[in-house]
Batch of 4 targets.
Target 1
Amino acid sequence: MGTRAWALLLVLCGTIFLEGIDVAMLAVAIPSIRSDLDLPTDTAAWVMSAYVLGYAGFTLLGGRAADLLGRRRMFLTWLTVFLAFSGLGGFATEGWTLIVARFVTGVSAAFMTPAALSLITTSYEEGEQRNKALLVFAGTAAGGFSLGLVIGGLLTQLGWRWVFFAPVLLAAALLVAAIRLIPAQPRAEEPGNEKSPGRPRRRTEGFDILGAGTAAAAMLLAAYAVIRLEHGLDGWQLTVGAAVAATTLLVVFVAVERRTPTPLVRLGILRTGSVVRADLGALLFVGAFFGFQFVLTLYLQELRGWSSLQTAIALVVLGCDAILAPTLTPRLVTRFGHAKVILGGFVLAVVAYGLFLPVGMDWSYAAMFPTLIIAGTAFALAYGPLTIAATDGVAESEQGLASGLLHTATQFGSAIGISAVTAVYGLVSSGASAGSDPDATLSAFRAALIVPVAMVTLGALLSSFGLRSRTKPPTAGGKPAAPANTTAATTTAATTSTTAATTTATAVAAAATTAAAIPAGPAAPANPTRQIPS
């Protein structure tokens, strides 16, 4: 690649680094923010939950918007929004300001991330050049998370507001560079002409505003209902009401998409078995991964008394997927096919979480290490190939939509996983002795650990149905496209690292908030969750 191609790649990868470091730094800073602003427990939890709500609520719309409205336009617009509201968080003096800032930051990530990834996959020639670009993308995504945990701890010592101001400085530099480097490509006027990935072809029929509105509202309400599951029967009317309203809006959305001449989401994409199976598998896998980390961080901080920074450093080993995803996983997919590698990842996850079920009161880090390294390896093996299956057979003009569906599944999986383990923990620890008896609290953690084991077991059963599917998608002429899996496998490394960064950091923050708020109480923990010039 030439100098300009490398510069563009670094800018696009910089936004993934930005997202990872932003979430990770906030994870470490949550207890200090709560203490300084004197935030109540529920408000502190919503500082993290607002980001998950915004991300999950708009990821589907964000992925499709990149296809329809232009990837460059979406990228630049939402990077600007990200910059502005990160700065707003740094000036916050009340909890509601932080919640608004984090919600809009989550929304901007939901639009910005699919746009950045699709710009990479459509700006570099398929083959060695694209593979190299995606390897760099994967490394910077994981690096942002890993460095963010440590840098967040250091910046918090100077003042938690720097956790918000540091991303502003980086985002501003990226925005200036992106305006100059991302080409404003000509519009593809003729139907079927997809050689200009930066802008969509002219849509004289109009944009599906009603579909976009109902989809966003349904996803927001659904995400809110899932987040509220952690409260159990407390306020169940609100939880049920949100779920019913979300279901109603989803029915309305489907009716709108069936009748509009220019649907936001072509419902036929859901008839592709591999897409649906992969999205469900990703939901279960990421949900289990997220739920396990939440229980683990509570165990380390609430029972063992580890600090947020100590916990973050301990969890860095889970980032081994950043090395394995772009190196080992593509080779395995090329040799065995993505279906078998997915199943192998699920089986490893069952082993990893199962090993942690008998966790003791005084386990050493060496005793925990096998679970952490196996869990990270399982993530590298399973999630990447799941992305291959989720985009397999999907036209280039709908790659943003397929990406949005996958990211929506992973975000909901994150919320479901943490809500489920929280609910189980709350039920088991609700006894009178749970607050004063460490053994009772440990029993509650062990019971909650059953949830991720059950989720990955179900996912393994589901993924086994994909073993009969072809591992190499056919081309338009019906012949197998041999290099497709290798390229797709490399593409998945970026998505894997990004998702792992978001879920891990949010779990750390949620646990930090809970530990700070209820150091020994029995209550259920609060939830946070074409070619370019050379």
Target 2
Amino acid sequence: MERRLAAIVCADVAGYSRMMGADEAGTHAAFKAHCGAIHPIILNHGGRIIKKTGDGFLLEFPSVVGAVEAAVALQRLMAERNAHLPAERIMLFRLGVHMGDIIADEDEVFGDGVNLAVRLEAAARPGGVAISAKVYQEASRHLSVNFADAGNFRFKNIEDTINVWAWEPGHSDRSHAPRTGSALPPQYRTAIVGVLPFVNLSDAADDYFSDGLAEDLIHALSLQSFFRVLSRNSTFGFKNGGLNARLIARETDATYLIQGTVRRAGAKIRVTAELVAPESGEQLWAGRYDRDIGDVFVVQDDITTNLCAALIPEIYRAEAAVPTRSLSTDLTAWDRFLRGLSHYYQPTKADYERSIALFREAIALDPGLAIAHTYLGTILLQGVHFGWIRSTRELWDEALRLAETSVRLAPRSSFAYSLLAYVNAMEGRYDTGMEAAHKAVELNPYDMGARGVLGACYMVSGEHQRAVEQFSIAAQRGNSDPRYQWNVLSAFTHYLLGHYDAALSWGRESYYENPNHLQGLAIRAASLAQLGRLIEAKEVVTAMLGLYPWLTVERLAGNIRWKNPDDIAHYREGLVKARIPSVRLTLVETVTQRLAES
């Protein structure tokens, strides 16, 4: 055995298992072709391949500068090769670099230098490079590229936290400005979610369904950027191990685990699932789905969509409830964002105002934190719909700027595109809004927010039946997410179709969730008036005026930019029938009082 100091580069392909599942032969051939193109870069920087795995490799370099330069050159070459490929064939490597003592035994290498390089690879973003602080200190002054401090990470089986520095495509030489950020930098995605293999309670022949369901759920959850999702290889090894959730979490560093069962009886199938916090043993969410087996893939996709729509808001809630991560009073951008998120889940005006302030503080501290921009834009528009903020030109302009910034910072975020679509559609830019909405659905077909925003684009364009279809899907599957008010939008769409009973029913659902929702109360009043139930409509209007004394028909309908003028006239008609004031009553009373005094 030989002990020596070396720089180690660890590489693997992001999403390799999914790609192999879709096209085994093509993925293997592509991987071999990429490795052939990469090999000259390794040699030119003095490196050698010390181990190959099915989806990656380990490299050894005598020079730490050579190792980092080779890693960056490799990723740049891969970016060029991927630029000419369709999305489903793009192959992205993650690279980790560390230097330290290694032990060489024949063709194998061991030691902390190898172990940490492997851990760093997991911290890198697809297409990027993650290096330890030790590597950065040794190599940074000799490099022409700019690495950004990604924060401190705690890795499995590593006692101390490791300061990580990161480079991604778009990081150029030092003359360029610092990176604007991605959807969510690695140090912010603090939660790690593991999907365990679903337990098949029926015949072994049904394993394909339970395994396929877990794999699809891993893929669906990975399309968002708020938390990290463990790969299939990380969790399926525990399929028959008999370990409890807490031990599995400690082995995988999972913050949350999703587990479930599949049971089949004839043509029926039942799926149960739960989200647990392993360290405390708390069950955060549980659900059950009964389906006719029919087309297996259709059923599997339906259950995956429902699970994804239910689980993501619960993980957001759980993370928002976590105590501040910063050990000092100087809160980070991420701490402020999470605090804002925790207030966002409290449906009061005071919490709403506090969340806005915290989101603004997070953006000021880190302008590249895309998710803070998207949430801020979303909550500002919700404030208008709730009646807590006046709809002004300045507010809508700010919402558009936030949406455009979100998309620029997070071009793969369906949430960002959903906000962009909604702002444009409500402002009367129907084609732009529709294009962005379709893009959001394309990026993440499991995102019920994107589905609902597509419905909103149909509604403002006058395609109400198509809007109803999208709202129904979004409301049924994603009704626990406070970012979206599908009940209110469904009520509006049914009203515009002349289905006043259905509009009233949806408006009632909105009332149960938020009895002070301005738009929800307005559409209830208009629907009751159109049904001739004027006494009930008057009661609703009286309650509205008690909450919003400034309320007038013009304030409710004056800024609406629906494509079809008849839709706007139809809504105004209902508001007038409900006896909502046309002008401010306080102004009329003041004028009358002055006339009497004179």
Target 3
Amino acid sequence: MSLLVVGLSHRSAPVSVLERAALSTDAQVKLLQDTVAAEPATEAAVLATCNRIELYADVDKFHAGVAELSTLLAQHSGVGLEELTPYLYVHYEDRAVHHQFSVACGLDSMVVGEGQILGQIKDSLARAQELHTAGKLLNDLFQQSLRVGKRAHSETDIDRAGQSLVTFGLEQLAAGGDVEEWAAGRRALVIGAGSMSSLAAATLARAGVAEVVVANRTVDRAERLAQILTEADDTAVTARAVRMDAVPDELTRADVVVSCTGATGLVLTAEAVARSVEGRTGQPVADLADGARTTVKAALPATGVGTEENCPLDLAAVQGATGFSVLGEAAVAGMNAATLEQHAAWVDNGTVDRREAARRSPEADAELITALAATAATVGRIPERRKPEPAAVIPRPAPAVFLLDLAMPRDIDAAVHRLAGVRLVDIESLAEASADAPMAADVDQVRRIVSAEVAAFGAAQRAAHITPTVVALRTMAADVVAGEIARLDGRLPDLDERQRGEIRQAVHRVVDKLLHAPTVRVKQLAAEPGGAGYADALRTLFDLDPETVAAVSRAEDSTDKKDRPA
């Protein structure tokens, strides 16, 4: 059996694909169960974070394993296999181990060196153990990756190469300024009470915000988090919990909003954000789409796009009926089929701009609306690919509210980027910012640690592979000694117990000395690359029963599970 990982991450796929492929907890459970039920795999674990989805498995066939794991990922993510395949990466055996260790050390994170991934790996292992889909290989791999990650953080200053996603996001909100100065005295609203939201709330509290309001669908979890923040010794923050239906009211009072929920749809629409800013400033909110500043009407669509003619789509930004420009996709981001149908009715009413109509045929418009409606019906809403807005072209007033969206799929409508008086940082903008972040010199040291640990893990796995054969050999030798001693007892019945003991010890010493050098040497040879064949050679030379070797393996695996920490 061999280790195989198939996955996609922020390095291989755009945010729009990651967002649609995100796995709920129930989907992860079903994926694990279906993977171990598939023929090529005997073990499975899923590592799903805000910017990666990876399926680990112990397989007996490489090509069949890749095909099966890819198919299962597509089925459970809801993204078609043909669309998903270009974004998938595959790692096998030592390369898979190297990838896992690199992930654990934060080398593969969006923000290099962030340590939260260790908690996510631990949760992934715990889920696989609970479902009994993790066997000896994946237990060894994930537990060792946790140790390697901790070693990287303790022996190097990899943390200086990057921060946690929360800290990095707050730094982006502060626009490069001091986070504590920026946060001092502000009111914060944290939507969600999971691990990422809890980290955000604690980080904001330590940064010096005056108040943290926690909103969550399960109020008990929000109340527990608020109590922890209030009772913390290192902060003086006021914290309270509210229900999710109180978010609109809290939004009008919050200066900073952090959202990270498991919702599959938007938690905050552009319209809701626009209303909250208007309530704070008393002024209509400007929409900076396409470089023009237009007032956002009360009937703002989910994307925040609206024209003077009240068209639900910014059709002028769409180029051609067969594809969409960057701005064209932005114009329909988040819209459902019903909203798109409103545009069809708007066209039928003859309100389309005459210059635009001159450039486009009715047939092209009809085809475009049909394609958009079909896409929205399939994926729920059309993800936006934002085009950076040059500051010199589109003037922005000072933000009245700051929003940090750490969810995948996103919680906050991406069209909020275009609202004046609002600063939104999300996974996509964090990826853009981190791409230019300088790499610390400690990264090279961590890479050396990873390489050394991969070699050690491979040697240990290869050595462990031969251990059942060595144990079976020693068991066979012990049985031979016991049989010969029994025969000696029958031939020499007059020997006293002291004499029998001396003979027994002498025979055992001879056998042990004869087996010591070969068994030690064969373990050393098996630990080297290409040493897997030594176990087969040993079984053949000593005519060992394969079932005896398998029984030793099962016994060792059972002991390993019993001794494994919960």
Target 4
Amino acid sequence: MKAQRAAVSRPPRVRARTTSIAAFVVLAALIPTTASASGTQEIEVALPYVCTLPSGQLPTTVRISAEFPERADAGETFSPSGVTTTVELPAEAVADLAERGAAQVRAATRLEVGVAQNEATAKATWRGGAEPVALPGSGPLTLVSKGDVPSVAGRGDGDLTFTAGTLAIDLALEAAGGAASTDPASTDPAAADPAAPRSAATGPDSGSGSGSGPDSLTVGCALAEDAPDQGLLATVRVGADGSPSPGGSPSGADGASRSPDREAQGHGREERQGDRSPEVLETAPGAAPDRDDVPPCRYDEQHPPTDVSLNAYVTGYANVNKMKGAAYLPPSCLLIEQGIPVDGPPDPEHIIFDTVSWANFHYQGRKETPPFPSTFLSFDFAPVKATMVLKQTGPIRIDSRIKLRLSDFTTVTDTYVRAPLVAHVTDLEVNGTPLDVGPDCRTETSLTSVDPDPANHPGDHLVLYGRGEQLIGQEATGYLLLSGGTLSGETSIPAFTGCGTADGEDLDRLLTASVSGPGNHIKQVQGQTCAIAAPVFPTPETPGQCTEDLQPYEIPVAER
């Protein structure tokens, strides 16, 4: 919709001031955020680690930075923000990677973090991803990974401490002049969780890392014995004064009480100890929107389904570095045509299948998201409301590689989603006054990511990655196309064009200066798909996948 200017004229200085406010905050309006509030502590810790590579155990420096609140109420959930893990692998590690034929690496990190309160403990895994980095000709290799981390809540009063533990680094290796691997991590199930039992070949104390072949390597790292403060990252005071709750018996790191009557009290005390342990939530708390509040997601006469048609809702957040906040993408409909698996490359230890699927957003017959408005106070006094839409410039491609390990039939699926999406700003109001951004205010090109396989996937597009794992007889974890899950990536926001009108201000340069730039993290959640040809309806014994009118039964919740 084209917004019109107010009919009443205003002095030029007042109009220019309002326009400047609008230009500076137009995308901040899309990104509900405020500046860092008082009571936030920024930490940056350098810790010594010992990492195991094919050449042996090597000393490594790991730098961890994040923002924590200084204080929280008992039971209040919070999540560390701006988490960055920087790993500096020594020159010997670079030589190891070069001997495997690598010219470039792409890293994913998994840092185990101990969370303790009044000696009761819990564990969290901080996951991050890094952009591809070329191997240096000499010297160390620096990998910088960023990502979201689980939320935490203290159960009572008392300091809540965060301590670094084991670190796993999944490396996808790319040869010079060759395509990048689609395996960003080892297929060893232990590599999926640094807290899981590891085989002798992949543990931090082993003689070599383990990967699925020359195109991947998982490096296990252990905190060095001389690490300062035993790896302490941060302390958050919980409660009125941070002192322990009255009557709370202390517990050791293993959760065992130090009270002399421990054995006499028996199992009941163990349960109470568990109730006192800090709560770690893998996803931020939230509730799914009501179905009446999300757009329909069904096939129709203009978009008839086939035997391989799926539909699903997706939602999520996208960071904008310059505005220090995250834009919320409400649940949006995705229509998917699932591909047919074909044989992948030969592997003596696995059966490999590759699948290419295609998808489109579907909103009122168009390949775009619903418009999503946001309202906030700019400079704490000027109410701003803006609306944005993501529009496709081509089909969304979904590449999945399924690896079935012959020894135990464990499957690992790596999925890359490539989406050409242009961001359009459609409406803007400042202090109730519409500002005309014109009919075609948008980014010049699609949101852009570094593609792991640019030779086969040229052009501007967003890249999101997800990994799913399934042990035989157990439910799958992580992301799978059929069951959904979390996808993440990093994008550059291009310059803006077409913003403003012929008789109004040109907002292109101001929007570009305020918003455009690299390094913007995206986290998207896809819900369970509905298979149109074989729908699964809810029963007292079976979770639903489809509604009666063949819409996705699950409406996912966005995660930060």
